[in-house]
Queue: 4 jobs
Job 1
Amino acid sequence: MKQEIRALAFDVFGTVVDWHRGIREEAAALAGRHGIDGDWARFAREWRAGYPRAMDQVRNGELPWTRIDALHRLILDDIAPRFGLASLPETELAQLNLAWHRLPAWPDVVEGLTLLKRQRIITTLSNGNVSLLVDMARHAGLPWDCVISAELFRHYKPDPEAYLGCADLLGIAPGELMMVACHPSDLRAAREQGLRTAYVVRPLEMGQAKALPEFEQNEFDFVVDSFIELARRLE
């Protein structure tokens, strides 16, 4: 018999916020002020593409524990020359790096989280560092009960310590915690640690319609198109 779901933990980048639009628009605005032309949609995708590789360097010991803000800056410094941004003043590059703190929420998110919060505890479970998640919540009006980051465990998802640590901090069993994400790999790693799972479809995560990741029928507890739908199905 399955345990009651007492809390929901949310992946953030892609699931809660539209990172592609946020990064694309901030990069385009900065470049425009300096008369730099470029494909800022591709810039956003390339910056994001470096994220899992950088985390893996931490996870396998190539790098010491490093916050996501610092990893984002390493990736930015690597790709900036290809987009004509390397000569920008350091203060402006530093501000661009903080664009990840200012990402917009998907249209359903604030209403959906507000509905879900009436029923259960809602928290982040993100690889983003705490200061990033707090800034993002304030910027986008995200009504979290608390902000939980992989930084607290010094283990990035999909390490088990992140999922089990989240349940432990909330004082609940893993089976009482539901992971909510638009990435099946995240959900599968959570499920392996005993968490419940909800897959949220975000076909525009990469800035354009994409084929949905493959998953098995009934692989996840819920498959929904929005946080609002998830709230209704959990009632």
Job 2
Amino acid sequence: MYFVCRWREESPFSKRVVALPDSTVLDWFRRGWGHDTPEEWISNELGGDVYGLDSIFDEARRQNLPPPGSVDQLRALLHEHLWVEGDDKDDYIRLGEHALRVRTDDDEVDLAYYFIDDEAAASSPDRLAFPLYGSWPLPANAARAGALFDNDVPVRTVRVAGAAGPESVFSVRLSWESPDTDRNLDLVGAVEFVGLGLPQLSAHLQSVEASRVDDVPYDVRLLRALIVSGEHDIGPALQRYARLPGYSPALADLVPVPAADPLPSMVAPLSPQPTESLVHLDTHIVQAARYIDTFFGFDQWFLFDSRWAAAHSGLARSLLRYAAHWDPFA
């Protein structure tokens, strides 16, 4: 079984993935039931703090509650005694036969955590491959030209003039304060650039007139502002992104610079890239884990085309879903 914590983790993916010896979610809760020091036990079991999870174990000890004997009993106990913050506690605690999904917040950012058994992990790669992927970076190999990627996750579509090929590029930015919603779990989904592959993206975006940039999603505007005229690939824009300072980069901080600038950038001021930031550039996927600080850790930006997605369909679909809903089963 696996535990995943989607939070301000120190990992480049801002999540923690832990393998557990238990066969089911029920088994794990039963094993910890009645433990004398729930907070310490959880930290040892799950690799660190999990905000609010100790509350149900504390309440079980305080009320001398018997351990749950079934999934239905565990569900009832979780809904009654597990502490979550939010307007709809019942909707934020979701327990099925093979997975528990919980949403809450720590007064700074939203967070979600999941317990996922082996059966769910094996049967639902389109939902779980990315949440369960623990090591930076994502793989780089891609399918042959003409390979098709069938995507069933809602995305925001952008069509750039002159892009009429069979491929698409997908943009997934995971930030702590999405400019679309001002939250980090209520994301509005990835962006799909229709009709081109990743090697063509930079040139096509340069053709977008500045006066029309307001008509496209925020992340497209941010990416466009990071591209310098004449660049033939998107990698330098991601490298500039990794150098942006602050919790939530704003378009107001991006200004054009003279074309004759020997080190052109669209960012003022542009900080040195923190040594913790990671950028991985390949032909069909580029990915950045931008280091913010010791409190927030990282945010992420992935740009990949349908050739990469066709070679890693589970990862691609689950990553797109990760940007669309806090619950991978939604």
Job 3
Amino acid sequence: MQMDFFPSRTLTVYLAKLFVVRILAVLVMLVLVLLALDLLSQTGDILAVPGNGQAEVLQYASLRAPQLVSRFLPYSVLLATLITLVTLNQNSEVVAMKAAGLSAHQVLAPLLLTAAIIAAASFAFNERIVTRANATLSAWEAAEYGPIPQSDESGNAPRANIYLTDGDNILAAAGLTGSGENIVLTGVTWYVRAPGGIIREQIRSPRATFAAPGWRLEQPVRFDVAGAITERPASLVVGQGLLPERIMLQSVNVDALSFWELGRSIDAYETAGRNTDEMRAKWWHRLSGPLSALLMPLLGSIAAFGLARSGQLFVRAIIGMALGFAYFVVDNAALAMGSFGGYPPFLAAWAPFFLFLLLGETVLVRTEE
């Protein structure tokens, strides 16, 4: 039996090529189908905005596609693993490799190496492309598919759906651009509430800037609820207790921040005495999530071994698929528990990965080694 972890160079390249081609094929198929379904539900809202046309629909598709690629890449690796290993088993190639002295781990080694490279590429893709697509799409959806707010000169992406309280009063904004004292709020609504929570006034403004202190509303429209009276004052300053630092903390969009930006936001939240369990769980999951691709060849390996003519190949493929999908269920459940404080953030992000790593290795060793 060979002592090297990898088989020969020729066999390694052959298995890696088979695996990569099937991953890309499955991923393209999933993304195209899901993107088409998503466009069917969103195209009407996009085209309802005056001036929007085919260019905006294609723009939406270009922003949505990276999200789908990021979400369904691990599923593609799982399905590609099963397709690759079942094909090799049916063609008796696995039998030939084992007859040549290769162990089960050596047969899987090219697939594991390919999955590790895909995991690293997935992390880079998420950091460079997906986060920016998330930020732009969130801001566009908040603007109801109207003009997309542009990033400021410092490269800060627009943020959406800002909601803050100043005593009994509430400040809501559809979008935010800039940072510090250069923050610009758009689609602003200021609610003046009585101590019991009853709204006394509602003031709407298309734009608000920092007035040091407070926020100056441009072209405000005030509605007095009790008297049902509408007024249009020249300008108003509201929310004098709302500082830019507080707004920047409140407006953090975890999915739109890179790994390092999210780490800095977590530090700022902890300095301010805020709970960071949800953010830290997602921060750890930025690492464990892409690494899930590394588990798929191990969990699906049960489909590679056993005689194809025994009639159990289909059952083995179903078991491999069940193990893979069980990982995604447990991973999502653990992340949700971590977000609510039920699990420590590190445990919520990493426990499913190590649990299924041990499970897959145990199944492989006990059945094939």
Job 4
Amino acid sequence: MAENPTRFGIMGCANIARKVARAINLAPNSTLYAIASRSVEKAKQFVSSINGLSETVKIYGGYEQLLDDPLVDVVYMPLPTSLHVHWAVLAAQKKKHLLIEKPTALDAVELDQILEACEFNGVQFMDGSMWLHHPRTAKMKEMLLDSGLLGPINYIYSSSTFSAIPEFLANNIRVNPEMDALGALGDLGWYCIGAILWAKNYQLPTLVTALSDTIKNSTGVILSLTASLHYDQPEKTVATIHCSFLSHSSMDLGISGSKGSLHLNDFIIPYREDSAFFHFTVDAKLVDLHIGWNLKPERVVVSSQLAQEALMVQELARLVECIRKSGCRPDGKWPEISRKTQLVLDAVKKSVDLGFKPVNM
């Protein structure tokens, strides 16, 4: 561990916080300093549920106490989306850097309030899209940027689904309009939209359309959704996303160009922590009589010394240390990525609300 590691405080004891708490301890330049919940008892239960968590971790029975602790450098916020804008703005005003779970806000208006508070107070913002920090992602981007390899991108497909149990569909906060009104679109569609934007170098689409197969629960929260994103420039690209609480688990990403394609089935969470792979194919053709192919996809394996969530924490801690010790400015790349993802998510939601009409961006 670094001599003066970046100190993280976790605000809220959601299940995902257990994974990030582990990541904070794995990252060599960070330490888990404090846990806050609405009650001391719940925070204590959280700490006791994580193997190897230091007994020196501070426990707070209120979010305000965490924000008032001058030793907390970064606040990780896995709260319900409806609570993000209030607590994130307050955290930024207290000069706390922010790692916030996706979706970052209920809409871009709320997110802009958070980002403006971060910019005004000189604090770093990052959302919890862990897959962006895996070295496999960098390797795939390297190949996509080689225009002579796959050619101009003309089709992208992304899915994130799981088959929820009845208890989830009845009681989970992600289907509660008061807590996470965006449902599957916010929880899973964030990844799908983010993957398409990533593949298109964060160029916004020109047209977004939700399909009429969208399924909602009795309170109007989206349980399953398919949408298309269209690009006109610099090349025409069609992208589709599918996110659902009602389908078997999938985390698929497929990117096709004029010369080749790239595919993986675990883009959000790799099958293994220490390595991940993807397939790519260049100049594939059917053989005579169409009884097979002239080649098989090539498998590219990328190793990783740390789990992707620990790499995310490590990068955020590095940025925070630079701000704290060297007077660096916060890296604007991460809030820009979040804001563009939120804008497209808003457009998909608007298309649903308009009766599945196309929405221009």
